[in-house]
């Protein structure tokens, strides 16, 4: 029974608070939601179960993210909504083929955003946070998005001060060369530009003649330096990108 006492939170308000927590945090656990909203974990779990049935939230390995319906309600672009819906399955195929973390990123203005990811099964791995803002000039996946961005976006990024995250972050001159190479080869590789010791490979995903996101696979150089691994990564990324293009352009139902 719902309390009518002043200040008491109704069932509807609790559900909204839980959804808002997930939407604002991007990726969060039951315990973290309970702490922020101020209700028992068992209560959060009960609401989460109902919200999942309505596709308002999604659960992946104990973490909760916004579902495609919540993304639509929040006013985000329909393409991003569909990418978020399809992303985990596509990223899982990359992890299966490479055993390393797979990430889907989209461009928002002068930044990239981690839209979805599936982490490596290895204990030593690289990962981001869902909805984390990333620089367009550093990292393979972000650089792919920059390479196919409008000219004014490229000019703005190239003209602004570019932060150096490691000693291997590209200079302005090297970045310009790499952008041209990406447009020629359709693929990018980075070596410790954003995180020391990381190797990442990325490819663009096209739909309607435009790049809608990038797919990246990243891991430590101790496991990802061989030509054999890079070959597997290239094949996995290419297959995933083609699958995602077909799914986004399909006129069928969700």
- CATH fold label of the largest domain: Beta-Lactamase
CATH superfamily of the largest domain: GAF domain
- Secondary-structure class: alpha+beta
Number of strands: 9
CATH architecture type of the largest domain: 2-Layer Sandwich
Mean pLDDT: 87
CATH class wording of the largest domain: Alpha Beta
Figure out the total of helices.
Answer: 10
Low-confidence stretches: 1-7
SSE topology string: HEHHEEHHEEEHHHEEEHH
Please tell me about this protein's structure.
The protein is α+β, with helices and mostly antiparallel strands. It folds into two domains: 11-70, Winged helix-like DNA-binding domain superfamily/Winged helix DNA-binding domain (Arc Repressor Mutant, subunit A), CATH 1.10.10; 76-249, Beta-Lactamase (2-Layer Sandwich), CATH 3.30.450.40. 48% of the residues lie in helices and 21% in strands. It is built from ten helices and nine strands. The protein has helices at residues 11-25, 30-37, 41-53, 68-73, 78-98, 140-147, 151-159, 172-185, 221-224, 227-249, and strands at residues 28-29, 57-60, 63-66, 101-108, 111-118, 133-135, 188-191, 198-207, 210-220. The strands form two sheets. It has a six-stranded antiparallel beta sheet with strand order 6-5-4-9-8-7, sandwiched between helices. A three-stranded antiparallel beta sheet has the order 1-3-2. The chain is globular and about 60 Å long. The chain starts with 10 loop residues before the first helix and ends in a 5-residue tail after the last helix. Residues 1-7 have low confidence and may be disordered.
């Amino acid at each position: 029974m719902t309390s009518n006492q002043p200040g008491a939170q109704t069932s509807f308000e609790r559900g909204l608070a839980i959804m808002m927590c997930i939407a604002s945090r991007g990726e969060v656990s039951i315990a973290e939601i309970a702490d922020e909203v101020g209700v028992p974990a068992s209560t959060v779990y009960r609401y989460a179960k109902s919200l999942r049935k309505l596709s308002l939230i999604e659960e992946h390995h104990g973490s909760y993210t916004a579902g495609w319906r919540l993304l639509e309600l929040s006013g985000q672009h329909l393409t991003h909504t569909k990418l978020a819906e399809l992303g985990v399955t596509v990223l899982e195929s990359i992890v299966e083929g490479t055993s390393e973390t797979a990430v889907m990123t989209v461009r928002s203005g002068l930044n990239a955003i981690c839209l979805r990811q599936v982490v490596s099964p290895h204990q030593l791995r690289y990962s981001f946070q869902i909805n984390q803002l990333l620089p367009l000039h550093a990292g393979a996946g972000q650089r792919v998005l920059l390479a196919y961005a409008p000219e004014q976006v490229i000019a703005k990024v190239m003209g602004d001060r570019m932060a150096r995250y490691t000693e291997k972050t590209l200079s302005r001159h090297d970045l310009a060369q790499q952008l041209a190479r990406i447009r020629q080869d359709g693929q990018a590789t980075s070596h410790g530009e954003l995180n020391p010791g990381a190797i990442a490979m990325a490819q663009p995903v096209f739909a309607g003649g435009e790049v809608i996101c990038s797919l990246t696979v990243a891991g430590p150089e101790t496991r990802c330096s061989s030509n054999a691994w890079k070959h597997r990564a290239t094949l996995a990324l290419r297959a995933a990108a083609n699958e995602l293009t077909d799914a986004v352009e399909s006129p069928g139902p969700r």
